[in-house]
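Usage

Read records sequentially. Each one opens with the input sequence:
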Amino acid sequence: MSVSECVKFEQKLAYFMAPSLLGIKCASLMSINKTEFSVSEHLERFNARAHAKGLKLRLLCDCTNRALILLYQETLLQQQLQNSQVQLILRQQGYAEPVNLEAALQQLSERIRCSGEFPHEIGVFLGYPLHDVVGFIENAGRNFTCCGCWKAYGDPNAAQRHFAQLNKCTAVYLRLFRSGTSIQRLAVAA
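and closes with the structure output:
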C-alpha cells in the first residue's frame, strides 16, 4: 500500500465521513472502488489507529467491484441502537431481539448483500432523524419535504439547516486535511 493510496483513502474518509469523525453523527457510509484500494489493509490500518477514539471502519458489503464501508463511533451507535423507537423500527424490519451492536451490524450487512434492494432501515444506523427513516419506509422514498444528505419528511427548514451543518463540517474537514492535518488528528472521541 503506497503513501499516495493512503492519502487518497483518507481524503475519501474526510469527504464522506467528516460528521462521524467529528462525532456529530453516529455513523457514515461510503462506497469505494476495489481496484483503487486494498480495502482490508486500509480498514485494518485505520482501526488500529482509531480504536482509542472509539471509531471503527467496517466492511458491510464486499461486492464485485465496490466495497461498502461504514465508519461508526461505537459509543454513539450503541446509544442509538438502545433507543426504544430505533429498536421498534429494527424489529419491524426483521432484526433479531434483543438488538445489540454487533448482531445488528451483522444483520444489516447480510441484508445489504442478500436483498434485491437497499435496506431502508440503514438510516437508523446512520443517525438520520427517526421521523425521516419512518417517513422514507412508509412512503417508499416518495412525498419527502426536502432532499439533502437524505430525504426528509418533517420541517424542510430544519432539515436544510441540519444538511448545511453537515456540509460545513465536511468542507472544514477537507480543508484541514488538504492543509496537512492527519485523519487521526481530525477524529474526535465521542
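Summary fields computed downstream for this record:
- The chain has a mean pLDDT of 94.
- The longest helix spans residues 156-178.
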